[in-house]
Design brief:
single chain; 433 residues; alpha/beta; Rossmann fold; pyruvate-formate lyase- activating enzyme; 2 domains; 18 helices; binds iron/sulfur cluster
């Protein structure tokens, strides 16, 4: 069988907001390309003996004349507009189309209006059945993955690496036991954290063709005992192996403040150099940013060589007053390395989307607008125009005083020196040793 994987395009910030392009072009923010994980992980789960190709629509055009027994699309909500068009084009030529990933998992009925079959949840463990059904001409409409399925090794060899920022994504788990009303992770990956075996994670890191990587799951810093134990073992082993790769991880302010002193030591020893701090999403900015414990923790992280890439969410119903003074003060006091500003976006399949939909506040259902750069719902405390204006002003206020050269330095501080090209320290040696 010949399987053709496609990672559909989604609009990056600068494509959505041309009015910001002048401020941000040359800053490697708002339009950078990273090799995504979904399609290449699904491809990695395909049993031996089948032919697999992959096109990332961000860096190459989709060729609908390609010969394939099955076109496989992996996408999340902002990609759904492009994905549906691709599916329609292939199906018009009689090619079967299978869809998986976050959006198809939570919106299977809508996905099936454009695709022949949908996988809900992880595809690992399903390929033998899917391909046997396809060969017999009995492809089912729905396949349900299991969150406990083994983890596939991503087929990163399918990417044209020269087209991307030289940093990768590494998966350490599936699912989540928290029930955040804005999040699709539990619906897609299950309602408990299923950890990926640590040896597999280490192998994945060693084999990454980049000198830096981002842990794609937040649970690395979760405070509960199981995640804490996993974190400590993984970080200790990374340090013991002497991996010369720079790591980057994400979390919410209250989890970052809950870290213990030895966690900071372990993160630093494992060469974690940046934390992506997501503020204003789980809790309102007015509660999170003024917390002196958070400011102190970010300063302590800096003392350990760990910088902050802060992501500020705007438009939270619980943030009635302007948050700009809080953001500015926080960035100043913590010497934030990189910042980004995101407009709250209720994703379909979440409780937040359902609540806003019931209240008649969803005003835009064009999925490519669900990228954090558009106002897709009616804000509670201001007009859509006002929220958008504040969003644009915040980007400008943060970046206009920074030169592109300084921004490049900041990127290298957080992602390692090789992020823009071949780093001699890692070239030719997969683990950089
Ligand atoms: S937002 Fe984070 S903590 Fe909340 S459910 Fe999603 S993955 Fe879990």
């Amino acid at each position: 069988m010949k399987l053709h994987f496609i990672f559909p395009r989604w609009q990056k910030l600068l494509e959505s907001r041309r009015d910001l392009a002048e401020t941000l072009s040359g800053y490697q923010i708002g339009d950078f390309q990273m090799a995504g994980l979904g399609a290449c992980t699904a491809a990695g789960a395909v049993p031996a003996g089948h032919s697999v190709t992959l096109v990332d629509q961000h860096v190459a055009p989709v060729d609908t004349s390609v010969q394939a027994d099955l076109v496989c699309l992996s996408f999340f909500t902002p990609q759904a507009t492009a994905a549906y068009q691709i599916a329609d084009d292939f199906r018009a030529q009689g090619v079967k189309v299978l869809a998986g990933g976050i959006h198809p998992s939570v919106m299977p009925d809508q996905t099936l209006e454009h695709c022949d079959a949908v996988v809900q949840g992880p595809v690992e463990g399903l390929w033998e059945t899917i391909l046997a059904d396809l060969a017999a001409g009995r492809l089912k409409r729905r396949y349900q993955g299991a969150s406990a399925a083994p983890f596939a090794t991503p087929r990163r060899d399918l990417f044209q690496h020269s087209k991307y920022l030289r940093t990768g994504i590494v998966q350490i788990s599936r699912g989540c036991h928290f029930d955040c009303n804005f999040c699709v992770v539990p619906s897609h990956g299950g309602q408990r954290v299923v950890p990926r075996p640590i040896d597999e994670v280490l192998t994945d890191i060693v084999e990454l063709p980049y000198g830096s990587f981002f842990f794609g799951d937040e649970n690395l810093l979760f405070p509960d005992a199981a995640n804490r134990e996993y974190r400590r073992e993984l970080l200790s082993k990374m340090a013991e192996r002497g991996l010369r790769k720079v790591a980057f991880t994400a979390n919410y302010p209250h989890f970052v403040t809950a870290l213990e002193a030895d966690d900071l030591e372990l993160l630093a020893a494992a060469r974690v150099r940046q934390i992506y701090l997501v503020a204003g999403l789980k809790r309102p900015l007015r509660d999170e940013l003024p917390d002196p414990q958070l400011v102190a923790r970010v300063q302590q992280l800096r003392q350990h060589g760990i910088h902050t890439f802060a992501s500020f969410y705007l438009g939270n119903d619980d943030d009635p007053a302007p948050v700009e003074p809080l953001i500015n003060e926080f960035c100043e006091r913590t010497d934030t390395n990189i910042a980004e500003f995101i407009i709250h976006t209720p994703y379909p399949g979440t409780a937040a989307f359902s609540e806003l939909d019931r209240a008649g506040r969803i005003i835009d259902r064009t999925w490519e607008h669900y990228n954090g750069a558009n106002v897709v719902f009616e804000p509670l405390h201001e007009s859509r125009e006002s929220l958008l204006d504040r969003y644009i002003s915040l980007w400008r206020a943060f970046y206009e005083p920074i030169t592109p050269a300084e921004m490049r330095r900041r990127y290298m501080r957080g992602f390692g020196r090789g992020v823009f090209g071949v780093d001699r320290r890692v070239a030719g040696r997969p683990d950089g040793t």
